[in-house]
Design brief:
This protein is α/β, with parallel strands linked by helices. The protein is about 30% helix and about 20% strand. It has helices spanning about 15-25, 75-90, 125-160, 180-195, 210-215, 230-250, 295-300, 380-395, 455-470, 490-500, and strands spanning about 65-70, 100, 120, 175, 205, 220-225, 225-230, 255, 265, 275-280, 280-290, 310-320, 335, 340-345, 355-360, 405-415, 420-425, 440-445. About 50% of the residues are buried. The structure holds flavin-adenine dinucleotide. One of its GO terms (cellular component) is cytoplasm.
Length: about 500
């Protein structure tokens, strides 16, 4: 096990991080809009890799839609995909349906286009905490939701022969364990999840000696299911699939307007539509708004600012060249230090040593980079520890002197208990009459740096609710998918939070 002196990052700080949400009253400013000059992310460059980057940014802006989706990350495009399936299937009284996606910057240039590329369904970690908050049965749903999302995503990729296009690698995932405290917690989560009925037979524990022998690192690990991919390329393909389905449904349409930030949402003057979305290019009227804005959600929904809402949080990544071949690193993805660091080698067909995408380092700052919306800069302290991290964990496999080939930041949306907000927009601070003031607005956001295995399912749930309500149903007679924890639902959350405080 490790002592602090051996690794460049602070260890056992998860609890300290969480306390910021409970104790730090200063975290309360609404998010800004996304900045216009973000750092260069590996996944978005060269621009030719992002064919939809500027889609719909010139010419006429759509004036009217049934549904407007704000945000073109994996949430927004997954929602478009689920709507496309409903439209093509003619379900829910949806035809014809006009959907418009509005994106502040280039296509998919938020967290999804700047992340670590891991698609890892959680195995059992944090089960103890979740059980305390929601009870065993509901806690298990969180894991079921992630398994559902990842299964669907990989099936879409395989069914459409997209593995190579999106660089899908299904190599499993190692959770490296640095300290005795972490190991005790991980074993306790494992036993508790198993006792609650989770099928964990696939989990493989590796001892320190096995890890030294196999991977040249002295930290024990648990190996779970996991994949890595090129997130923006997957989202691009998902958009194309959605577009194709819309084209088959007569009268329906899907339009994307990038570089079109929504600056405010007003009641519409047009009697046929509820809402009017204001942008520098003009306004768009619609009945339904889906906020797929993740870390930026509180810009348009200021009541979400603060520790009970969604805190924009800056994450940082480097792309660094290994000093050894991919065979001696494995094709798996990895995380360590309670998930604060995460990395994987990019697939390579040549004899060249692989580029490793490594994220983390924000725990070096006292405020953990919470409340930051500026991804035009990198944090110098985080840069320093990221450069030192892999050489310390895998002695001899990375050269400390090698500068990263790229480095960038992105904005995540953190919530106190790591759960996203899914469902109709409900102002938790308002009185009963205020709660109707967002009628027709929905949200799926706040994945706390772990969105790749959750956004697809959350978008599926919110779209199902939207279509149900468009068809005359209510949230009371909507059937919740059996993998969706009730706690994720916006209208259930307030009561659940009160329960958690007493836990
Ligand atoms: C550095 C980093 C590393 C990460 N690593 C991983 C990982 O390896 N695995 C994992 O599972 N998760 C990871 N995450 C988290 C994951 O990327 C997110 O949870 C996920 O991408 C969220 O998707 P989204 O579509 O909800 O948000 P985003 O991708 O952020 O999309 C939101 C979009 O909304 C747009 N927008 C915001 N406000 C407005 C507005 N007013 N008008 C118009 N458009 C607006 C933004 O420009 C943005 O494109 C990481 C995140 C970061 C930043």
């Amino acid at each position: 096990m490790s002592s602090q002196a051996e690794l460049p990052v602070p260890l056992n700080v998860y609890e300290k991080h969480w306390r910021l949400f409970v104790d730090d009253a200063s975290i309360k400013e609404p998010a800004t809009l996304p900045v216009q000059n973000p750092t260069r992310s590996f996944w978005l460059h060269p621009t030719s890799e992002n064919p939809l980057a500027k889609e719909g940014s010139q010419g006429a802006l759509s004036k009217d839609a049934d549904i407007c989706i704000i945000g073109s990350g994996i949430t927004g495009i997954s929602a478009a995909y689920h709507l496309a399936k409903a439209v093509a299937g003619g379900s829910g009284g949806t035809n014809p349906l006009k959907v418009v996606i509005l994106e502040a910057r280039d296509f998919c240039s938020g967290a999804t286009g700047r992340n670590g590329g891991h698609l890892t369904p959680a195995g059992f970690l944090d089960f103890g905490m979740r059980k305390k908050v929601m009870g065993s049965k509901e806690a298990l749903k969180q894991y079921a939701l992630e398994a559902h999302s990842v299964r669907e995503i990989t099936e879409i990729i395989k069914a459409n022969d997209l593995e190579e296009k999106v660089d899908l690698v299904s190599g499993g995932h190692f959770d490296l364990i640095f300290t005795e405290d972490e190991l005790t917690e991980a074993k306790s989560d494992f036993e508790a999840a198993k006792a609650a009925g989770a099928d964990l037979d696939y989990v493989r524990w590796f001892s320190r000696d096995e890890m030294i022998e196999t991977f040249g690192t002295k930290y024990p690990a648990a190996k779970i299911h996991g994949h890595n991919l090129w997130p923006m390329k997957y989202v691009t393909q998902l958009y194309y699939l959605a577009q194709k389905s819309f084209e088959t449904a007569h009268g329906s349409s899907l339009r994307l307007h990038t570089n079109t930030p929504v600056t405010s949402i007003k009641s519409s003057d047009d009697k046929k539509r509820r809402w009017s979305l204001q942008t520098p290019r003009g306004s768009v009227s619609c009945n339904i708004v889906l906020h797929a804005t993740n870390g930026y959600a509180s810009h348009l929904l200021p009541f979400l600012a603060g520790p009970n809402g969604i805190i924009p949080t800056r994450g940082q990544i480097i792309a660094t060249r290994a000093a050894v071949s991919v065979d001696s690193l494995s094709r798996a993805s990895w995380s360590g230090n309670e998930g604060f660091e995460y990395w994987f080698p990019r697939p390579t067909t040549s004899s060249e040593n692989p580029l490793v995408i490594l994220g983390g380092g924000r725990e070096i700052e006292k405020d953990f980079e919470l409340n930051e919306t500026d991804d035009s800069i990198v944090n110098k302290q985080a840069s320093k520890v990221l450069r030192a991290f892999l050489p310390a964990v895998f002695p001899g496999k990375f050269d400390k002197k090698d500068a990263p080939e790229m480095e960038w930041t992105g904005i995540m949306g953190f919530t106190k208990l790591t759960d996203p907000f899914v469902g109709p927009v409900v102002d938790l601070n308002s009185n009963a009459s205020g709660k109707t003031s967002y009628l027709g607005q929905y949200i799926s956001a706040g994945y706390t740096g772990h969105g790749m295995p959750r956004t697809y399912a959350c978008a599926e749930a919110v779209v199902s609710l939207i279509l149900h309500e468009m068809g005359g149903g209510t949230r009371d007679d909507w059937v919740r998918p059996d993998w969706l924890p009730a706690r994720y639902l916006t209208w259930v959350r307030e009561a659940a939070d009160k329960g958690a405080q007493g836990a």
